[in-house]
Description:
The chain is 73% helix and 0% strand. By secondary structure, the protein is mainly alpha-helical. Helix 2 (26-48) packs across helix 3 (50-56), helix 2 packs antiparallel against helix 4 (67-92) and helix 5 (111-142) crosses helix 7.
Amino acid sequence: MLHTTFLTAMIAIVAACFILSLRRNLFIALLTGLSIAFVLIGLVIFYAAPAYVQSLFRSFRLELVTPDDVLRTFAIVTFGLVVTTIAGMATARLAQSLPVAAMPSSSRKNYPALALVGIALALGIGFIGIALATIIDLARQIDAIPSFLSLRRELGRHYLFILGVFNLLPMATLYALLRRENGAPAWPFWLLYALSTIALVATFQKRPLIVFMALIAVVACILYWRRQQLTVATALRPWPLIRMAAILSVPVIALFCLYLVEQRYGFGPVWPAEQAAEQAAEQDATGEKPLEPTWDTAQESDLSTIERAGLALRSTVSRIFGRMAVSAVLVVHHIPHNGPHYGLANVGLLAKLKGQELYDPGAEVFSRYAQASRVRGSVATPAFIDFYGQFGWPGVAIGSALIGLVLGALQMLLQSVRNDFESHVFLLAAGTLTIFYLTQASIFRTALGYGGGIFLLSWVAFYGWQNFFGEKSWQASRSTA
């Protein structure tokens, strides 16, 4: 009874944060809403029906998790949202004194934008070539079709191309979509969309592809709403409702198809050639036969098409509402009971500067809680949970305050370009992507690897230099001051 009351109180606090931020800071409202969707709903389900969650995620030893672990995880996320809301609200008050950019971003000679699109195209085409060469090379080494897991591991080494495919190509595609709305030709958008989709598929990672498709689908619906001058009443009419529902269903259908394909080709274990020595050493140490480069036995089971579709559908739903909650609970259960707080040891840049080995808490948690001890992988860690893993509750307070300051500054920037529809939508989309990744990864990985910093630089290249450094914008700012 006490636990249920505590959980109800935290749900009320989160709801209050969402309502307060909805009118004052859209980015904090988005962070709260996405945290509810991807983490908190899953935690409530985990607390109310642990047996059901264990049946969904049978690859983890979730029977080790207690209700106290679930409530502590919920409390960490709630505390982080409260601190973020307070810090963001304090910063957002400065938005009223910031001048509003009045110059529309309609210049046809946007050389920084053209250069950035060219770089994105080069990186995307280059990565597709690298992916094809890697697939052929691995197939020759193992004399079989490589698994998605082994291909993802191999392709992840091309970090510069990965950054371009994950971050620059989606931003260039978004820019082309917005320019199309302003009268530009449609073919650059479709070219970039096709190239982005192919390149993201070639990374053999589901999340960046689905996030990209969801971004384009949402912005396309916004543009359709604006073009048709819809209201809430007219949007509920059959044709507009069906059209927007069809657009928004694209990423969900794609995720379902990816899970369907992954049942056959997604898992191995298929080992690259450079791991042969490691396998041989394991055989010498344990006397066991090493894993063969063949398909997992689960892939050869006699499942019907309907059963495979049902399994893919269940994976799709659990991916959206339960995956992050499970990984967050496992991290909280692991630290500090089974391992100490790891500080900044999981920050790749600092590890390189210090000459130390990078610590991966997600991999350690996965290896400890995975049912199969010989399966390798990692669990994603939301930013608030990563703060807790690094420094405990003080880390959550300081890190959440930092997020609040950043989101407050983003709100100020968004307010300053409210008269420029293209720039406003692009910045809102880039900020939403960054916030989404905060619910999926640490703040350092969000800012660098997942492109939060690149998103902002892309906005500067596409729009910001005209809004703040153009002659007309400078004169407009002076006249409004």
